[in-house]
Structure formats: C-alpha cells, structure tokens
Amino acid sequence: MVNKTILWPTDFTETASHALRYAVEMANLYKVGLKILHVVPRPMGDENFMILAITPEELAKSMEDAAAEKMTSLLAKLHTDLPVETQIRMGEAADEIIAEANSGEVGMVVIASHGYSGIKHFLHTNVAEAVANGAQCPVLVVK
Questions:
Q1: SUPFAM superfamilies in the record, alphabetically (predicted)?
Q2: What stretches of the chain show up as alpha helix (H) in DSSP?
C-alpha cells in the first residue's frame, strides 16, 4: 500500500459518488494520491446494418468528450490537497478497472456496488464483484 494510489472507478452515478468519500478518506489516511477512472463502453456497430447516422468512431469520440466534461465537473467539486490523476478508457468496465488495479501503481480500489439482488443481480453485470475477484490489491466495495 505504501506510495501506491487509491483507485476510484466511477460511472458518475450518485452511488459511485458516495464511494468517493471513502476513497478520499483512505487516500488521506495513507497519504497517497487518488486515481479516478471512468470506462466508456465501446459502441457496437454492424457495418452491414448501419442504423446510426454517425460512425462508431464518431460515437466513441462523443462518449469520451461527454465523460471528459463530467470528469472536469467532478474535479471542480473535489476539494482536496491530494494528488489526483484522471483517466478515461474505452472497453469493458470490469476488464479495464482490473487492468488498472493490477498495474502495480494501485494499492487499493474503492468501488461502489449498485446493490442489485435477486433477478436484477443476474440481469446486470456486477462490475464491483468482478473487480473484487480479479484485483490483486485490496478492494473496498461501498454500498
């Protein structure tokens, strides 16, 4: 944990924002930096059936730009003296978060769980559970 950052993956939901308080608290406790990661899903397109009026690349750029605006807004509200790094990646959320968690630079992941149970648990991908199982560092899942 020494000199390794706290990773806070976010999808910009209220639930994820709740976990941010824990991430900042842990970073302050260990006197380390905070890394904020947002993963933009890859747009799916079929060249044979062009339903979209824009290309998948244009859609991806638009999604990344929207994420960057949300990240800028989030940073403006974050009042901390901690070093903060932000990343926006494209891909599957769990895969990208696990890759970052296992990069050697992360000492702990603080991630929100959307708390699905029953049938909703099976219908929605549980990113927090996948990260907890795949990360080599400690993972704090916040409900």
A1: Adenine nucleotide alpha hydrolases-like
A2: 14-30, 56-77, 93-101, 118-123, 127-134
Question: b or e along 91-118 (b: 16 or more beta carbons within 10 Å of the residue's beta carbon)?
Answer: ebbbebbbebbeeeebbbbbbbbeeeee
Rounded to 10 deg, the angle between the 93-101 and 127-134 helix axes is: 30
Residue 4: how many CB atoms within 10 A of its CB? 17
Query: Which residue in the block uniquely carries the two structure tokens 């949300």?
Result: 70
Where are the domains positioned within the chain? Answer: 5-142
Strands 139-142 and 34-40: unpaired
- Structurally, at CATH architecture level, domain 5-142 sits in 3-Layer(aba) Sandwich (3.40)
pLDDT in tens, 94-121: 999 999 999 999 999 999 987 555 555 4
